[in-house]
Write a structure and sequence with these properties.
- 53% of the residues lie in helices and 15% in strands.
- The protein is α+β, with helices and mostly antiparallel strands and 137 residues long.
- The protein folds into two domains: 2-47, no CATH class; 52-133, Glutaredoxin.
- Strands 2-1-3-4 form a four-stranded mixed sheet, covered by helices on one side.
- A hairpin with a 2-residue loop joins strand 3 (103-106) and strand 4.
- Helix 1 (2-18) runs antiparallel to helix 2 (22-40).
- The longest helix is centred in the first third of the chain and has 19 residues, at 22-40.
- The chain is globular.
- It starts with a helix and ends with a helix.
- The chain binds 2-acetamido-2-deoxy-beta-D-glucopyranose.
Amino acid sequence: MPIFVYPYCCLCLLLLHRGNMQWIIRKHFWQSKCLSRLLLGTRHCSQKQLPVLILFTKDSCPLCDEAKQELQPFKHRFLLQEVDITLPENTVWYERYKYDIPVFHLNGQFLMMHRVNTTVLEKRLGRIEQNDAQHTE
Ligand SMILES: *[C@@H]1O[C@H](CO)[C@@H](O)[C@H](O)[C@H]1NC(C)=O
């Protein structure tokens, strides 16, 4: 069974990335998800991509370390990417956030700065998760 399901999933993922014929692909994608769940009793291919949380930071930023600690209880709900604003390719972010780090973006949108606000984080994560759940049913 897995031999049958895996290639199908991978093909769907490839097609998804091509971004054309979106609705057909999405339909097939969800079907394959349900199929694999049915056949394997697992959630292969059903894992929605986690939201991406970007932390704008730099070396020796105690507030950033503190913020990361506060994120621990939430860490299974997003992918954390760190952007070092002192790197040459990040001068745009340096100019924007040099006095404000830690700054967080969630899925490309500003989320919070200076410190973690768990209320804000919970609310925005919850909204994204709810959206995902609706689209998978
Ligand atoms: C978190 O953000 C909310 C909404 O902006 C605000 O009302 C609340 O005071 C903030 N909490 C902390 C601890 O800063």
